[in-house]
Design goal:
The chain has 322 residues and is of the alpha+beta class. It contains 8 helices and 14 strands.
Length: 322
Amino acid sequence: MFIKRRKGWEIPESEVTPEPLVLNRRALLGAGAVAAGTIFAGGLAAPVRAGAEPDPSRALYPAKRNETFVLDRDVTPESVNTRFNNFYEFGSDKKIHTAAEALKIRPWTVKIDGLVEKPQEIAIDDLLKLMPLEERLYRHRCVEAWAMAVAWTGFPLRSLLDHVRPLGSAKYVRMETFLDRITAPGQRQFWYPWPYVEGLTIAEAANDLAFLVTGAYGKPLPKSMGAPLRLATPWKYGFKSIKSITRISFVEERPVSFWEKLQAKEYGFWANVNPEVPHPRWSQASEEVIGTGSRRPTQIYNGYGELVAHLYVGLEHERLYV
């Protein structure tokens, strides 16, 4: 007798959205691409801002969903997600969506350099043409003990690694965001170590879950969520998922990330989700699901341990969960 053992993030088939509803949703998203907004997961999507710059990548969305990644909860409504974000470049308040509209995302280039065979500076639209876009449903867990579920579109970070071919001496991937103090008022606050920097090991970057995001909810990524290119690492706390990336460097030494540089006792390099390791100022045992107000127990590695736990074997001496 064959018994299927479900993975930590899988849900029973009885709870999966019926295919006709999924197909109807995709038809709605495609038809509404030029409309002021769309209905998604029970919420009204953010309207397109009058006079907003056109996004030349709009025709690429919605991308085909990768059904490997399913959720144990509803996707957070787009109207909630676009209006509840940490994006310190535009302020320390969660409601930065209006301020973030000042960010100019075309032209936008990404510099890829360091210990790599094919260093280059590539326009975001040229990068999109090279990479295999797909949609993935991921949980997102903030270090502040709140959580969301997001329909991301993008491509595996591993696909970029395959394209540029890091050298054997490269141990880490260092990512950096834009620096524009005129556009981003938060970057005028001199006590922060701008620009925002984050990093992964090469092994983490090559993991199936590491995802470079270019869209959300079947459309190009909103500016408030880190357009035009951000990282999603769902087994780590959200501050690891750097927004609005302009540079990706392959380096031998471990990069010191933004929050680690600011307060290393509270925010480390690894930042893997663990309910049993509290933040110095609050518990991580449970999380508030934004948009519902409900609380859920936190899962080790945010429920993705079967895909990532092996990355940390032999590193028990490290502060893996801070």
